[in-house]
Every structure is written in C-alpha cells, then in structure tokens.
Design brief:
By secondary structure, chain A is mainly α. Helix content of chain A is 69%, strand content 0%. Classes of the chains: A mainly alpha (99), B mainly alpha (248).
Chain lengths: 99, 248
C-alpha cells in the first residue's frame, strides 16, 4: 500500500498560514487602497488560502495526476461560465438597442 | 475471475475489499476519484451563486458595500477561525486513521463535529440579528417583511441601515437575497457534514477504520475541506467588501 502520509508538522504549518491569512484579509479590508485593489487583495489572499487547503489538507499535491486534471477542468469550465456571462452583461451598454 | 482467486490471496484478505476491485489501493483511489468528481459538481453549483454575486455587485457597488457593512465582522471572523480549526482537526483525524491511532482519531472527529456545530450556532445568532433588523428579504417570513430602518447622517445605531452615497434600500435587499442564499446553502452543507461526521464517529468507535481501509474518513474529509474553502471565499466577499468605505 503506497499511500503518502502527510507529516503532522505540515498540517500545523498550513493551519498557521490559514490563520495568518484570515488576520491579514481582515486588516487589509480596513485599508483604503486605490482603485479596485481592496477586492484584488482580498481575492488574492482567499485564492492563496484555498490553494493551501487543496494541496495539503486535501492531499492533491500527493495524489495521482488525474485528481489535478479533474480539479483544473472544473475551474476551467467555471472560468468559461464567468467569461461568457460577463462578456454579455458588461458590454450591453456599448450599443443602444432600446433597453 | 478464477485467476484472481489463485493469485496473491493475501492482498484480497481485507474484509472491506469489494469484489470488483483488485486490491485496497485501487479501491481507495477509485473512492477518492469519485469524491472529486462530486466536488466538481459542487464547484459548478456554488460557482453559479458566485456568478450572481459578482454580477449584482458590479451593478450595485454602493448598495452592496452598505449592506455588507451591516454584517457583524467580529462574528464572521470568529466563524472563519472556527472553520479553519475544524478543517485542521479533520485533517488530523485522517492522519491518525492512516497511522492507526484509534483514540486520537475519534477525539479529532468529535472536536471537528463540535466546531462545526459551533459555526452553525454563531450563524444562527447572525440570522437572528438580521431578523430583528428586518433584513430578511421579500416576505420569506410572514409578519416580518424586509423593512430596515435607514440611519440619518451621524446616527451610529448599529441596528439601522447606514447607506453610502448612491445606495438604495431596494438594492440592499438584493444583497440580502444573495447573502441568505449563499450562506444558507453553505450552512446546509455544514449540517450534512455534521451528519456525516456523526456517522464517522459511530463507526470509528466500532473500529471499522484502519490504516488499510479508511476511505470514508478520507472522502468525508475532502467534503469538509471543500465546505471550508467555500467559506474562505464567502467571508471576504460578503463581510469585508465595503469596510474601507465606512469612515470615509
């Protein structure tokens, strides 16, 4: 049985990273960054936290390549859903056809 | 079929091995793969709600920021920490199952369940606060329709709605539709997760899981971490998006 067992110190490290990330995102939310940077900072921290959970808590880093392919394809198709929807909504005001 | 029985019978010895798998490793990997396919459907399911959120937030930015600022940031942050801690104890439960330590395994599962219920308790407190501030959208609850009191300029009452420049009460209602839909679906997933954890605790006490066979612990762990990830995105998107505008 060749199952990779993730050592405890990695779990503890990831737990620490997630708590620091939470504190950081709350702190950043109260800073008045220019333009849309508040949202970008918040999303960057959230994506980083989620990546750590996926790679280590969910063992994707130690799993077969197939798991990674399935996860990536899900995110890719979600990207299509967002891209096509917003290519419609965000361009409606470009032309006037009576809305 | 007959050839299976004659070759290496010792790898077929585990009572949990189903007949259609070659060995325990293949069975475990098939189970994990199946769970990931299910999680893909969950990503698409929550993805649709994140899409609705992004769309309406881009249309009503000031109203969404005003509505978000009414949420309790302290309870939200505490709940985030509670959920992250529960993800950690769930990961440790999987670890202790893999190395065959029975008592710490059961203990970790129980702590995970207690933390999950703590999260739901705090969430219920938040929902109750929104009910008392008349922020339940539409007429979902008879006798208490959506009807928040808008604060005058300089009024610091936290139970009133503080509208930023350009925000309207009607658009704030849209935020609360999305807030209750997303946190409600998340809470439903937590309730299902609590049920699954109860099952794990009962069967762990019966010593059903060992280093050779622990797919249920691993797979329910994947589910629990997924629900945690959804909250990792919900927290900044719902609670934090307008905080930097509060004092401006």
């Amino acid at each position: 049985m060749s199952e990779h067992i993730v050592p405890v110190r990695i779990y503890v490290t990831i737990f620490g990273v997630l708590l620091v990330g939470t504190a950081l995102t709350v702190w950043a939310a109260f800073q008045d960054f220019p333009w849309q940077l508040n949202t970008i900072v918040a999303m960057t921290i959230a994506i980083t936290k989620a990546t750590f959970v996926v790679l280590y808590f969910m063992h994707v880093r130690y799993s077969t390549r197939l798991i990674l392919v399935i996860l990536t394809s899900a995110l890719f198709w979600m990207g299509i859903m967002f891209a096509l929807t917003f290519s419609d909504y965000w361009t409606r005001s470009w032309i006037s056809i009576g809305y | 079929m007959a050839s299976h029985a004659t070759t290496a019978p010792e790898t077929h010895g585990h009572p949990a091995l189903q007949h259609h798998f070659e060995n325990m490793e293949q069975q475990r990997e098939a189970g994990t793969l199946g769970m990931w396919v299910f999680l893909v459907t969950e990503i698409m399911f929550f993805g649709g709600m994140f899409l609705a959120y992004t769309l309406y937030r881009s249309m009503f930015p000031a109203s969404f920021a005003s509505a978000s600022n009414h949420l309790d940031i302290t309870l939200g942050t505490v709940n985030t920490a509670v959920l992250i801690l529960s993800s950690f104890t769930m990961a440790m439960a999987v670890y202790f199952t893999q190395v065959g330590k029975h008592r710490p395994q059961v203990l970790c599962l129980i702590v995970t369940l207690v933390l999950g219920l703590t999260f739901l308790g705090i969430k219920a407190k938040e929902y109750s606060d929104k009910y008392h501030d008349h922020l339940i959208p539409g007429r979902l609850l008879p006798g208490n329709p959506y009807n928040p009191v808008v604060a005058e300029h300089g009024d610091k009452d936290p139970h009133k709605l503080h509208l930023l420049e350009g925000a309207t009460v009607k658009q704030v209602e849209m935020f609360y539709w999305i807030y209750f839909a997303m946190t409600g679906m998340h809470a439903l997933h937590m309730i299902i997760g609590a049920g699954l954890l109860t099952y794990l605790i009962i069967f762990s006490l019966k010593r059903r899981f060992d280093p050779e066979y622990h797919s249920p612990v691993e797979v329910i762990g994947l589910y629990w971490h997924f629900v945690d990830i959804v909250w990792i995105f919900l927290f900044p998107l719902l609670y934090l998006l307008g905080r930097h505008l509060e004092h401006g």
